[in-house]
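To whoever picks this up:

The parser on our side crashed when reading a file containing two proteins. I've narrowed it down to the boundary between the first structure block and the second sequence. Both blocks are reproduced below exactly, byte for byte. First block:
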Amino acid sequence: MTSTLLTNVHDILSNESDKNCHLVQGNYQYYHYGCDGFDDRGWGCGYRTLQTLCSWLNLNHKNINRVPSIKEIQEILVELEDKPKNFLGSKQWIGSFEVCLVIDKLYDVPCKIVHVNKGDELEKITDILKLHFTSFGSPIMMGGDVDCSSKGVMGVTVSERNTSLLIVDPHYFGKEQSKEYLQNKDWVKWQPLNDFLSTSFYNLCLPQVKAKNQI
């Protein structure tokens, strides 16, 4: 089923001619709830965002000929002793730190964790995000506490009025649809920074590797 996954679902919203728009470089597949026939609704969003990042790494860095399943991701985290054995087969969510561990294990790629204390302080990391997409071009995983919904960040656009992040949301559940459908339903969207929860902290995982076309 995963062979039918949509690729680069953000590109209908990208504006590469805008000098204030900084985007992911290279191709990736869009992983979301149930996309492989396994129903992970309500807890699997972190795994799905990790899978999206892994698909990018396969296509743009080192192809390990698979994207790890949720089961395999859990096995890796137990093997690394980050999680206890009863984590296997559980519905426990994962965040940006666990994503870093798995990417390092599978691809030998270090990740940078950027912590933001409150959503209304996201503006402070705008330059970090711009530099990341310019220097590396890899997709970013974003998670939080009150806002515990994992999401992929595929770009940042900066203007005097507002800064927005290009969000690819893994919470979609259903048959594969068009990019236009995902956009119309806000599964893929530009989200202004002031729309993020001011009461939530956020952790972002930035894989420190360049796309092949960036080297």
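<<boundary where parser fails>>
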Amino acid sequence: MAELASLVQRLEVAVGRLEAMSGPGDSAGGAVSVYVEAFDGIVSGPVAQYVSLSQKIGGDVQKHADMIKQAFSSQRQLLMTASSSQKPSDAVLTTLLQPVSKAIQQVQAFREQKRTSPHFNHLSAVSESVPALGWVAMAPKPCPYVKEMLDAAMFYTNRVLKEFKEKDKTHVDWVKAYVSIWTELQNYIKQHHTTGLTWSKSGPIASATAAPPCAPAGGCPPPPPPGPPPPPMDLSTSSSGGANSGDERNALFASINKGSDITKVLKHVSEDQKTHKNPALRGQSAPVRAGPKPFSSPTPRPAASPAPARTLPPVLELDGKKWKVENQEGAQNLVISDTELKQVVYAYKCNKSTLQVKGKINSITVDNCKKMGLVFDDVVGIVEIINCKDIKVQVIGKVPTISINKTDGCHVYLSEGSLSCEIVSAKSSEMNILVPKDGEFTELPVPEQFKTVWDGQKLVTTATEIAG
């Protein structure tokens, strides 16, 4: 028994050494590699929970979740290829990354098509962070890239939490499940792909059309043998010249074989036949062929007129609880007066227009507008300025929060009753807050440059004035 126990112990040690020697990207006999199994844990864990909660919410959120599920499936296919193949050339790698890239583009395009969706914040959170799946092309630091994409989604996940924290716990759980996907993915990358996607050290070099090899048991059929080589070219005949071309070729070779005797057939030119010694012959000489003309730029073609931009009809209507103000061009007297506390206003793609909102309303969103003015009485929720340029906002009554995101040029005129409101800004520039004082407005810029230092325990960030 002692000998048997010793033998078992020796076998366990040998197996442990073999497992240690095998790399994380190698898979033997078609078995799933260690890091593919770890990736499956993310899919069956946080991703499955996120999909389940999205199905409870339904609508656009569920459709978006199905796209995310497909994106993770495409990435798993790429990991299977990497686990059994060596790293290919950059051109082939680009082809292998296309399924993941197309899945990311599909997720982002869906969000752009659903800007009026009641769950637009959910769609935006997913759309802003899904590029994190591109970590497979990020070397040597893929993990920080995933974190950066997660940070981009936090703006919208916080809005979902703020909107549904007291209303529906399902949405709160949805945010936690979705954020955990990228958190777990960061941990996964740190463990298995620290400096980039890990490829197998053995096996064939990955090709653009190669799928991960099947296990021997089950039997993928072997590829068919290559076809026979083409017949040798027959040089004795030519497709166009026939026998005549063969005679001409033989005559050419015979002339070459003469060596120095080939010059004997040349005609001697006497002194009286040379034009440089007889000016009278110059006028009788054959015209000299002109050389190629100097390069000149071709006649410019008329530029093709660009296709006229598609103009959508202007919209100003109440759709359920939402006032929709869209595609307004040069409209200076837009007024929404018959308002209720439960209603919201959404202004989209308006240019050189002015909108006035009377009464008390829940919230106002100005999205993708240029040179627009907004005047409102009271808002109990939030006023959001997103993806805009040169916007002016005037508060007549009160508003608790004004959010400015991805906007260049925004002037906010506060009233006496709204001086306590919070201004939240991100990725914006040229922001100015005008505060009433003695009947006039005092203009104060919102900081755009910051200084961050480590105080020994935490990072401390303070606003700095731009030098220059």
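After patching the parser it read the second block fine. Residues 315-463 form a domain with the Pectate Lyase C-like fold (CATH 2.160.20.70). The first strand starts at residue 315 and ends at 319.
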